[in-house]
């Protein structure tokens, strides 16, 4: 597959059973990315079971199975391309580490397809995923109103769902130009690769055309330099070499840099990418760089490197907007889970729950509530138990997000909306 096209990570979100897996199977099939033997096998099985239609969700199941058996397949099978872009489907929010991977940048999605069952409309996870998408920095959304075959491709049903979803998205903060809608049937096909003959009332683009029409997020090259550190090496003959991915800004040899929260400064001697020295590195580049004036043990994973005249912010306290995804009981003031932001993991205490928002209207439902629980969206005050670097999401979005984890689960996702720096 041509890999010279710009790459996009795509998340498929939506309520359980609304057709996410089926749609992924259908997209891979329509773009020629399902191995022939998988199609044959499942067509046969469908016939034997007397089912008329070929179940695309099976394609995904079979790929997952093959992966478990260690057969040839890895995530290569979840790639497809359109005229303009080369897409990788990143895991859905239901999957175990989705939120953590999104936050730590392991699989940051550039855009998302929200799948909504045309006969059911907005359900609990539809709302949760939409909040999550916005919190995680996804600013472009395609709403696929699916299972239109179940409602006889009825225009009124489609319009009703579009209006309903539109209200939800506006409330969450999506702007009109950031959202596209399309009526589809992932199972039977229709408005995915080809226009459906069942929708003479719809003259918009097909789903693949809408995917091709997405705009790429701007590269944050003009923001201040931030390189979250993954590891620090000491290489004989060279010296201290921190490694990490540049999130924002640019780094060059002879730059004066500061690592926070360790508060160590030095001078960049050289920058390496793919084992070669480069004159500069920018957003998305995985680099190793040699710094003069800092010992290997003076800095560590979780530190963030920035220019010394605009160093990473060490927070004393911050305000966060969070979405609670799951919690066995309720979250109250005093709760101290682990916050995962960029490469750091720091225990933080939620010292106050400032307000709870209504997920339907976005309005403040309660000031200073006693507790919040799964499904709630809230503003909270947070006190890190150790020094940590965080930025306001409005200023440096890449360094303003975090996942809250406890008991091996992602409890919530959030963003820093205000902060008090450490003196
Ligand atoms: P997920 O939980 O969102 O991944 O949903 P699945 O892809 O597993 O689909 C759930 C069920 O809906 C399966 O039985 C699918 O066959 C069915 N389904 C998915 N898309 C369509 C569609 O376009 N039309 C109809 N009639 N059924 C669909």
UniProtKB/TrEMBL annotation:
EC number(s) per entry: 3.6.5.3
InterPro entries found in the cross-reference section: EFTu-like_2, G_TR_CS, GTP-eEF1A_C, P-loop_NTPase, Small_GTP-bd, T_Tr_GTP-bd_dom, TRAFAC_GTPase_members, Transl_B-barrel_sf
Highest rank taxon of the organism: Archaea
UniProt entry tagged with the keyword Transmembrane: no
HAMAP family xref list: EF_Tu_A
Function field: GTP hydrolase that promotes the GTP-dependent binding of aminoacyl-tRNA to the A-site of ribosomes during protein biosynthesis.
UniProt protein name: Elongation factor 1-alpha
């Amino acid at each position: 597959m041509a890999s010279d096209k710009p790459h996009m990570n795509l998340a498929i979100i939506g309520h359980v059973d609304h057709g996410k897996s089926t749609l992924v199977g259908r997209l891979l099939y329509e773009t020629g990315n399902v191995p022939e033997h998988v199609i044959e096998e499942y067509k046969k099985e469908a016939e034997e079971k007397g089912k008329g239609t070929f179940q695309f969700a099976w394609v995904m199941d079979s790929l997952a199975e093959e992966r478990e058996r260690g057969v040839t397949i890895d995530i290569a099978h979840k790639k497809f391309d359109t005229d303009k872009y080369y897409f990788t489907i990143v895991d859905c929010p239901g999957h175990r580490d989705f939120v953590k991977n999104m936050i730590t940048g392991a699989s940051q999605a550039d855009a998302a397809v929200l799948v909504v069952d045309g006969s059911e409309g907005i359900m609990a996870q539809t709302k949760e995923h939409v909040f999550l998408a916005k919190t995680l920095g996804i600013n472009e959304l395609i709403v696929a109103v699916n299972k239109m075959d179940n409602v006889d491709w009825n225009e009124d049903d489609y319009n009703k769902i579009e209006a309903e979803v539109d209200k939800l998205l506006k409330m969450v903060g999506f702007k009109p130009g950031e959202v596209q809608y399309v009526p589809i049937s992932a199972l039977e096909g229709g408005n995915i690769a080809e226009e459906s003959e069942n929708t003479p009332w719809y003259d918009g683009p097909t789903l693949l055309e809408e995917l091709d029409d997405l705009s790429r997020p701007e590269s944050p090259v003009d923001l201040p330099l931030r390189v979250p550190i993954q590891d620090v090496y000491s290489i004989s003959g060279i010296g201290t070499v921190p490694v990490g991915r540049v999130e924002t800004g640019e780094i060059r040899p002879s730059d004066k840099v500061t690592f926070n929260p360790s508060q160590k400064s030095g001078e960049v001697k050289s920058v390496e990418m793919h084992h070669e020295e480069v004159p500069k590195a920018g957003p998305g580049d995985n680099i190793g760089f040699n710094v003069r004036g800092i010992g290997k043990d003076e800095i560590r994973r979780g530190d963030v490197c920035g220019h010394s005249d605009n160093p990473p912010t060490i927070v004393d306290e911050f305000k966060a907007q969070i979405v609670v995804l799951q919690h066995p009981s309720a979250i109250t003031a005093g709760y101290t889970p682990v916050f995962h932001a960029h490469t750091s993991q720091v225990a933080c205490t939620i010292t106050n729950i400032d307000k709870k928002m209504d997920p339907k209207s976005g309005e403040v439902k309660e000031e200073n509530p006693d507790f919040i629980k799964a499904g709630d969206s809230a503003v909270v005050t947070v006190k890190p138990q150790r020094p940590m670097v965080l930025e306001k999401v409005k200023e440096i979005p890449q360094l303003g997000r975090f996942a809250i984890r406890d008991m091996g689960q992602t409890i919530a996702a959030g963003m820093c909306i205000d902060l008090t720096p450490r003196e």
